[in-house]
Structures are given as structure tokens and as C-alpha cells.
Design brief:
about 30% strand
Length: about 160
């Protein structure tokens, strides 16, 4: 399993659908995952301070796990088939399936590790600029964003299926 870092959520102009970008912690590849608007909002709201009086479902999950003396250890993306990613959340010694967007939304709220199977990264991972290693320059990030705007979900599914979380 390869450690990943949350990069961003953006809407591509071609697919008009939010895409979650995860970046290798010690590498140069990104994993684009098309998600729903609700999933994008849940992830982005994890980057803000939660309102005490109206916690989200993801805040509730984190609070419930903590109240039961548990810790969300990691969220792992283990497979992708026909554009659908398989993910699991590990709480202590227990692993439960989850949607990628829900797993990332919870992981960001409690600083859990985000992992992607090497086979998934090899299959759908993309460099900042196709064919070139990534760097942190603003110029290259803008080039990558322009590249993302040309992508469609089916570009990552050789069978042409509709991607989902």
C-alpha cells in the first residue's frame, strides 16, 4: 500500500463532475477519483472548523468512534473495477467497507493515513504533466489542472463503464 496525501477537489470542465485528487506522499503520481457533489462537499468541509451545533455525518462518525475508544487508523483504496473504487476504513483491528469520498472525508477529520494499493496506483495514477515527473511549481500545477480539464471518467476505464465512488 502506498501512502497518499489529499491534494484537492475540483470540477473538470469536460465532465462537469467533481474529481478528488490524491498525491503520492513520496512520489509524483496523482490518483483522480470522480465523486459526487455531496462527496466533494463532505471532503471540503473537513478542511474547515466544524460547527459545534450542527456536526456533519462524518463529524458524527469521528465522534462516535472516539466515544467508543476507537481510532480511525487508515483509509485504504484497494481496487478499481469499471471506474468504481473499492475502499475500506480501519478502526483498530476492524476493517469496514466505505465509499472513497466518505473514507477521505473521515480521514481528513481525524488525520488518518490514506493508502492506495500499488496496483491501483499503477493502473490509474497520473503524473503532473503526462510523461514528466512532478514538481511543486505553480506553472506545472496549472498545466496539470489544464490536463485534468481534458479528462473524462471513461479515460480511466478501458471497459467504458460509468465511474462511481
Amino acid at each position: 500500500m502506498i501512502p497518499m496525501i489529499f491534494s484537492e477537489v475540483r470540477v473538470t470542465s469536460v465532465a462537469d463532475t467533481p474529481v478528488l485528487l490524491l498525491r503520492e506522499a513520496q512520489g509524483e503520481r496523482y490518483v483522480p477519483i470522480w465523486i459526487s457533489a455531496a462527496g466533494a462537499n463532505a471532503i471540503l468541509s473537513a478542511l474547515e472548523d466544524p460547527p459545534d451545533e450542527h456536526p456533519s455525518s462524518h463529524d458524527l462518525i469521528v465522534h462516535l468512534v472516539a466515544a467508543l475508544d476507537g481510532v480511525v487508523e487508515e483509509v485504504s483504496i484497494t481496487d478499481v473495477c469499471e471506474g468504481i473504487f473499492t475502499a475500506h476504513m480501519r478502526v483498530g483491528q476492524t476493517t469496514v467497507p466505505c465509499r472513497v469520498s466518505d473514507g477521505i472525508a473521515v480521514a481528513l477529520r481525524c488525520a488518518a493515513t490514506i493508502l492506495v494499493a500499488e496496483s491501483v496506483l499503477d493502473r490509474v495514477g497520473a503524473f503532473l504533466c503526462p510523461g514528466e515527473p512532478a514538481s511543486e511549481s505553480d506553472d506545472q500545477m496549472e498545466q496539470f489542472r489544464a490536463f485534468l480539464d481534458t479528462l473524462r471518467p471513461e479515460d480511466f476505464d478501458p471497459d467504458g463503464g460509468e465511474p462511481e465512488e
